[in-house]
Design brief:
Length: 265
């Protein structure tokens, strides 16, 4: 069984929701990133979204854009991201989802990509600019691998489009909480809850909310309406604001405990 599916099944049996954490691979550098990621996976993150640094992250807000810049300046690439994921997999069993834009993956080669995903123990791919109509070659390449294609749905996505998104997808449906790019704050909890409830009623996949979730109060209010919550910018911002890299794992742990505590109340 794919680790993502196993995680959701185990959490459901415990009447708990998944906390999904996004962090950029190699931010601020390879070794510090590894320690941060390992700490996140042992501090309450149920699924890790590992962002591949990209020069033109159009879906992401300024916090994650700058994180990509830091990682790229430190020498990170798609190849070194896979090295990081493989090293992390040797230490933890937490499901790993690669979060990427399509350009670097397509350039890498889809068959080569499929083999690398399998080799590194990666459980899912979330490609923000690859619509289902264009995903056929990727689906073919990973058909014999235990890797899910995870898709995003916007607040404006119609029911017809939702059905298209979940066709051939797996793991969970990433439901964006608002229009615009990633970033913290600015959520109308009541609107998000109403939308999540409507989508949950028709989706065969677990529903996970993301964009703008940044605090224990957010996770407390939104967890009842979804199967999981995704937090990214609030974690990445800790790295951006740090003056001492050695303190980063501890600071990330503190934030994850806050988020997890809110969900579990």
């Amino acid at each position: 069984m794919n680790r993502i599916d196993k995680t959701f099944a185990e959490l459901k049996a415990q009447n708990k929701k998944a906390l999904i954490g996004f962090l950029t691979a190699g931010d601020p550098d390879f070794e510090t990133s590894f320690e941060i990621l390992k700490t996140a996976c042992t501090s309450g993150i149920d699924i890790l979204e590992l962002g591949i640094p990209f020069s033109d992250p159009t879906c992401d807000g300024p916090v994650i854009q700058v994180a990509s810049e830091r990682a790229l300046k430190s020498g990170m690439s798609l190849t070194s991201t896979f090295k990081l994921a493989k090293k992390l997999r040797a230490e933890v069993e937490t499901p790993i989802v690669i979060f990427s834009y399509y350009n670097p993956l397509f350039k890498y080669g889809l068959d080569r990509l499929a083999e690398k995903l399998d080799e590194c123990g990666i459980d899912g791919v979330l490609i923000v600019d690859l619509p289902p109509e264009e995903a056929g070659p990727l689906r073919t390449a990973i058909a014999d691998k235990d890797v899910h294609i995870i898709r995003l749905a916007a607040p404006t996505t119609t029911e017809k489009r939702l059905n298209m998104l979940v066709d051939g997808a797996g793991g969970f449906l990433y439901l964006i909480t608002r229009t615009g790019v990633t970033g913290t704050g600015g959520l109308d909890h009541n609107v998000v809850a109403k939308h999540a409830t409507a989508v949950k009623a028709i989706s065969p996949l677990p529903i996970c909310l993301g964009f703008g979730i940044s605090s224990g109060e957010d996770t407390k209010r939104l967890a009842p309406f979804a199967d999981g919550l995704v937090v990214g910018s609030a974690l990445v911002k800790i790295i951006a604001n740090a003056t001492d890299k050695a303190t980063l794992p501890g600071k990330i742990r503190e934030k994850i405990i806050e988020l997890r505590s809110g969900m579990d109340e």
